[in-house]
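Good morning N.,

You mentioned wanting to compare the apo and holo forms, so I went ahead and generated the holo version with uridine-5'-diphosphate. This is what I fed in:
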Amino acid sequence: MRVLVTGGAGFLGSHLCDKLLAEGHEVLAMDNLITGDTDNIAHLAGHERFTYVKHDVTNFIYVQGPVDAVLHFASPASPVDYLELPIQTLKVGSLGTHNALGLAKEKGARFLLASTSEVYGDPLVHPQTEDYWGNVNPIGPRGVYDEAKRFAEAMTMAYHRHHGVDTRIVRIFNTYGPRMRINDGRVVPNFIKQALQGMPLTVYGDGSQTRSFCYVSDLVEGIYRLLMSDEVEPVNIGNPKEMTILEFAQHINQLTGNLGGIIFKPLPKDDPQQRQPDISKARRVLGWEPKVSLDEGLEPTIAYFREKLSQELGEEMGI
Ligand code: UDP
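and this is what came out, ligand included:
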């Protein structure tokens, strides 16, 4: 297949490019680099089946030649990023999704939307199943991401029903691994960076809120299986192993030997109190479940951030 990955220089997008190339496909990565980074795809430069195009997908997307699949992964995805980039986040989820769907329709390509557990908002159903409609504050600060993604799902289903586009929707839960931006403000890079610097870990609120962390290789495998399946309705992909943020902080301090301890900071507005994917559907329809344990995934992730921090230090010292 010839596959377009929007957000192809981002954390998930770049890992998807690797997977698609490993499966023998041709890949066109598109990114405007507002949160993506060409460092994430530098190792693919010169690959005969890989091309990178700098483009903002909120503007009309033109691709020459055939396209067999469009994977729409462009979007800021960290709460800190989308609070700093509220309009871009709304635009990429709405206009960007519309353009990407328009391209898929024009080319007769399959379309896969990167949606999110944020469509469930601060969920009142636990764990979250795909048939839960969610509890989202449309006018709160997180609404710019949540509502854009909810609109993107609605648009995807409309293109499927009205134009017959062959569509897929993955609802992605918290994912971590190498190539996350060290300063993106999410809990995994924040805690690891703080721990490696011997600083206290910043737990927001009392740390009783829960998350369930999935390693990136598991996630990418699930997404690839979904792309190759014929499941049109949304599918949760994530790791159901749930823990409180306080437990997660204690675990990171223990793994890294950090003696900096923990400090408590205010909880951001509308921060979901609990989150755990129900992955029965992914198990049933895709034969998928995560394989990588938290410690197995944290090892290469910590190594990656250690390397990034020493690069940053080297740059500051002019080395
Ligand atoms: N969080 C935290 N300390 C940090 C960053 C995040 O306690 O330095 C908390 C945050 O309030 C949330 C959870 O960790 O409850 C996960 O936050 P993240 O930004 O990674 O993503 P979210 O799951 O909220 O989209």
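The first helix runs from residue 11 to 22.

Happy to go through it together on a call whenever suits you.

Best,
F.
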